[in-house]
From TrEMBL:
InterPro entries recorded: Di-copper_centre_dom_sf (IPR008922), Tyrosinase/Hemocyanin (IPR050316), Tyrosinase_Cu-bd (IPR002227)
Tyrosinase copper-binding domain residues: 119-136, 308-319
Annotated source species: Apodospora peruviana
An MF annotation (GO) of this entry: metal ion binding
Gene3D superfamilies assigned: Di-copper center containing domain from catechol oxidase
Protein's recorded name: Tyrosinase copper-binding domain-containing protein
PROSITE patterns: TYROSINASE_1, TYROSINASE_2
Keywords: Metal-binding, Signal
Cleaved signal peptide residues: 1-19
Length: 389
């Protein structure tokens, strides 16, 4: 099924698009804002038509904000909740995953175990939507967090990842870069079975030195699996064993260029879920990979990437793009988009697996019961009741 976007709401941009003096990325950013407003209007229209007794209404809706729009106290509360989760005991048995040491590790371990079934396939978007939601709920229900999961809009800082406030290295941030380490080898990552990508060293490489997640306050305990380098060899027990080490980062302005506003626009304007998924992941310079790659360190490991707290804000941004795309169009188009599926249930369909359907289930292990994809396709239905600002 293919969809077309209405140009209503985009007419004010015509003069900008035709103006040679305007940066095309500025034009794209403004177009993205128009699409965001259309999405928000359609969400509110749906909610206002519901009965007051519905599970998700305008009154019960929560709103996720971009990191830079949070107040200092909101940022500090999010950081505190993240560290609170890492101070709570694990619920996942060490007989299953020997390396887990805390509740935060439970989340990383679930990603480790499910990576072959939730990347480069038809489960990717639905799994990560619910996975981030479960993390958000753990922060709220287990650590008393009153806010919502913030997202990291990397299109704001596409020219240089180091300029985004989320990485300013203050106590009210998610930390800064890793210490610079010269003479490091490339990191060769297996993205999918038999598909490898080489990442050159960038501006850091060592342990994070500023902010709330320095070696004295944060430990990465699981992985890696997806790469094997001298400074971070594959962990014991195939990456599932206890492997305590610092959080490393290696900010790359080269990869941040791939998260430019025009790449977001291109995603929002595709005409099918298959095309959206391809642009997210498979084409060169895809934004999903770019978000991980521009941070570097453990973010280069597909399996253990949740070990870095930036993971959640990055995947909230991925989810934001998906839900905005889902809500562009008339009522019929929106319904069709939300009920669209594509692909199979294994990474790159290797090994070959059955096509994904709305009734296909995704496992969340200790975090939640298995969920059918049809439960996860709308952020205002099923277990969800949130939207993005």
């Amino acid at each position: 099924m293919k969809f077309s976007l209405s140009i209503i709401g985009l007419l004010p941009l015509v003069s900008l698009i035709n103006a040679t003096t305007i940066d095309p990325e500025v034009v794209a950013a403004r177009k993205n804002d128009v699409y965001l407003k259309q999405y928000q209007d359609n969400i509110m229209k749906t909610l206002r038509a519901r009965k007051p007794t519905a599970k998700c209404t305008e009154r019960t809706l929560i709103r996720r904000k971009e990191w830079s729009r949070l107040s200092k106290s909101e940022k500090l509360a999010y950081v505190a909740a993240t560290k609170c989760l890492a101070a709570k005991p694990n619920q996942l048995s060490r007989a299953l995953v020997p390396g887990v040491r805390n509740r935060y590790d439970d989340f990383t371990a679930v990603h480790l175990a499910n990576t072959p079934y939730v990347h480069f396939n038809g489960n990717f978007l639905a799994f990560h939507r619910h996975y981030v939601h479960l993390y958000e709920q753990a922060l709220r229900n287990e650590c008393g967090y009153k806010g919502t999961q913030p997202y990291w809009d990397w299109s704001i800082s596409y020219q240089d990842v180091r300029t985004h406030p989320i990485f300013d290295g203050s106590a009210a941030s998610l930390g800064g870069n890793g210490a610079y380490e010269p003479d490091r080898e490339n990191v060769v990552v297996e993205l999918a079975p038999g598909i490898f990508q080489s990442h050159p060293p960038a501006t850091g490489g060592g342990c994070v030195t500023k902010g709330p997640f320095t070696p004295s306050t944060w430990s990465v305990n699981l992985g890696p699996i997806g790469y094997n380098v001298s400074w971070d060899p594959i962990g014991p027990d195939g990456g599932f064993g206890y492997n305590p080490r610092c959080l490393r980062r290696d900010f790359s302005p080269i990869y941040s260029k791939d998260s430019r506003p025009s790449n977001v626009t291109a995603l929002l304007e595709v005409d099918s879920l298959a095309a959206l998924s391809f642009k997210f992941d498979a084409e060169p310079g895809a934004v999903h990979g770019a978000g991980h790659f521009q941070v570097g360190g453990i973010e280069l490991c597909t399996y253990a990437s949740p070990s870095d707290p930036i993971f959640w804000a990055h995947h909230a941004m991925i989810d934001r793009i998906w839900t905005v795309w889902q809500h562009l169009g008339n009522t019929s188009v929106i319904a069709t988009k939300q009920n669209s599926v594509w692909g199979t249930g294994t990474n790159g369909n290797n090994p070959p697996s059955a096509p994904v359907t709305l009734d296909s289930t995704i496992n969340f292990d200790v975090l939640d019961q298995p969920r059918a994809i049809r439960e996860l396709v709308s952020t205002i239905d099923g277990p969800f009741c949130y939207m993005y600002e």
